[in-house]
């Protein structure tokens, strides 16, 4: 098992160990500050899973999974994704 490269898909900025993200209260978060790549985008404060992650360098949002760049070039994915997200009531 090899580790993925983690960097911004827009500007290739790499998160540092000291980088911190905010569980944005404006978007219903709890205000926790943590390194989102240690938890796979899950806020340790409220348990919310962030599907998008902001780049601290270029300030653009990307899907959290798009930050992970696996060395294997041959990905055979059948991506017939439909928007089937349920409205979260909370
Ligand atoms: Zn939170
Ligand atoms: Zn960036």
- β-strand amount: 15-25%
Helix content: under 10%
Supply the helix-strand structural class: mainly beta
Integer average pLDDT: 88
First-last Cα distance? 38 Å
Largest sheet: 2 strands, antiparallel
Instruction: Count the E strands.
Output: 6
Counting H and I runs of at least 4 residues, what is the number of helices? Answer: 0
Order of strands across the main sheet = 1-6
List low-confidence stretches: none
Give me the Rg, rounded. Answer: 14 Å
Ligand inventory: zinc ion
How would the global form be characterised? globular
Helix and strand run: EEEEEE
Itemize the secondary structure elements and their pairings.
Elements: E1 5-6, E2 21-22, E3 33-34, E4 52-54, E5 61-63, E6 68-69
Antiparallel strand pairs: 1-6, 2-3, 4-5
The structure holds zinc ion (2 copies).
One zinc ion is lined by residues 23, 29-30, 32, 43, 45-46, 48.
């Amino acid at each position: 098992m090899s580790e993925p490269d983690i960097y911004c898909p827009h500007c290739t900025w790499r998160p540092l160990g000291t980088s911190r993200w905010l569980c944005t209260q404006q978007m219903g978060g709890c205000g926790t500050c943590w390194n989102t790549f240690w938890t796979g985008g899950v806020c340790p404060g409220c348990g919310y899973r962030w599907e998008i992650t902001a780049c601290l360098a270029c300030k653009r949002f990307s899907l959290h999974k798009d930050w992970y760049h696996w060395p294997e070039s041959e990905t055979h994915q059948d991506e017939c994704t439909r928007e089937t997200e349920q409205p979260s009531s909370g």
